[in-house]
Amino acid sequence: MSFLLLFLTTQIAFSFTGVKAQTPVASASRPKSICPTELKSAVDVLINRPQFSRMRWGVLAKSLSSAQTLYSRDAEKYFTPASNAKLLTTAAALQQLGANFRIRTSVYQDSDGVLRVVGRGDPSLKNAHLTELAKQLRKLGISQVQQLIADDSYFQGESINPSWQWEDVQAYYGAPVNSLILNENAAVLSLLPQTIGQPLRLRWTEPTEAYRWQIENNSVTTQTDTPGSVEVSRDLKGPILRIQGQLAVNSQPDITAIAVFDPIENFLRHFRQSLAREGISVTKMFSGIGAKNVQEIAAVESPPLSQLLVEINVNSNNLYAEALLKTLAIKQPPEKNQTTADAGLKVLKTTLTQMGIAPTSYVLVDGSGLSRKNLISPEALVQVLQVMAKSPQAEIFRASLPVAGVNGTLKNRFLNTTAVGIVQAKTGSMNGVISLSGYINSPQYDPLIFSIMVNQSEQPASVVRQAMDEIVVLLTQLHRC
């Protein structure tokens, strides 16, 4: 589980993007089996409900083995995919880099007393890795560093996609993606009720963060059992944090996370602390590009790509997906004036074309799906799933997807239905957008692949997910007639 999820899943009252527990899909009133010839009318009844009249549905369901189409509605048209875009990113990365690929972070000795840390975009780098680097340096007899240089030049271009919305980039799920990422470039904080009428108390998981931010706290502690909600936002121009809302005096702490304002300052500050704990003092530290990487004296590596994919798809981690997209650029280094992200997108598109995915069936501008400029058809998603199911990496790819009622973003969905344990699918969600694409290991029918996408929805996300889940349950109940 990711660094942030270890904190965020402990909260009770609030989460930035956590999947809400859903009412189990009612299936007792329906037969436990359905003929393929009955599927279209059954799905149409769900989609054509009056409350869904203003939204767009795109649906495609096929047999994995025969490619027979079981249901289709606007499957060739473009939809905003949200995190379903991660299926394309992870499929291309697995094809290009291989399951055992790791991302290395190195420390070089440029000269006596001058150390340079070179990041290569490892999204899994945590404080524990800095401790490991510090221990390696101490074993070499290093006790003093005159200059500590953070080399953040591996990824070229902006660390934040210019098409992302401001309300997203201030939150942890829209954190900047640079070469030296630490703790997912996010700071975790808790808001705790005090006495009635007093503002909520802010507590940082990393205490030194308190010195980095100017706080504008307009929150309040309210009477016992009163409804509560809190909004934490970051200023556009500087490290100013604004807190609004209320919590009841007897409520649990509200835990959330925000994107750090300066990733390199964040990295250097934490690394200096790690070095100090190992008895290594640092005189001066700054960001810069040093000499050629001649003498590596310490290094740590990420988990293998197979594990990174699980974090991306099971937990829908945007930062991991964007780092992986930029990492793809090693297969075709950026041209002059080309950003690393654009080079990675070029490799991704070339890879998908080689896999047989029509270039006209999707438009991608990032690797995570956070941008609303992404467009993908259900047809393209189903095709990617089909190709990956027949590839040598099929088992690894499938293992990276959440399982209905079991883990990740599907842990609290499909409870008490025939879908539990046999549906593996990637979720996607943003305002007005809900998507779900994946596999069904049907017990009474062929294995299935499907994609369901909803755009331009004014309905609560829980209502749309409920209907979407009912469609998937119908697919799990298919049998030969």
From TrEMBL:
<protein>
    <submittedName>
        <fullName>D-alanyl-D-alanine carboxypeptidase/D-alanyl-D-alanine-endopeptidase</fullName>
        <ecNumber>3.4.16.4</ecNumber>
    </submittedName>
</protein>
<comment type="similarity">
    <text>Belongs to the peptidase S13 family.</text>
</comment>
<dbReference type="GO" id="GO:0000270">
    <property type="term" value="P:peptidoglycan metabolic process"/>
</dbReference>
<dbReference type="GO" id="GO:0006508">
    <property type="term" value="P:proteolysis"/>
</dbReference>
<dbReference type="InterPro" id="IPR000667">
    <property type="entry name" value="Peptidase_S13"/>
</dbReference>
<dbReference type="InterPro" id="IPR012338">
    <property type="entry name" value="Beta-lactam/transpept-like"/>
</dbReference>
<keyword id="KW-0645">Protease</keyword>
<keyword id="KW-0378">Hydrolase</keyword>
<keyword id="KW-0121">Carboxypeptidase</keyword>
<dbReference type="Pfam" id="PF02113">
    <property type="entry name" value="Peptidase_S13"/>
</dbReference>
<dbReference type="GO" id="GO:0009002">
    <property type="term" value="F:serine-type D-Ala-D-Ala carboxypeptidase activity"/>
</dbReference>
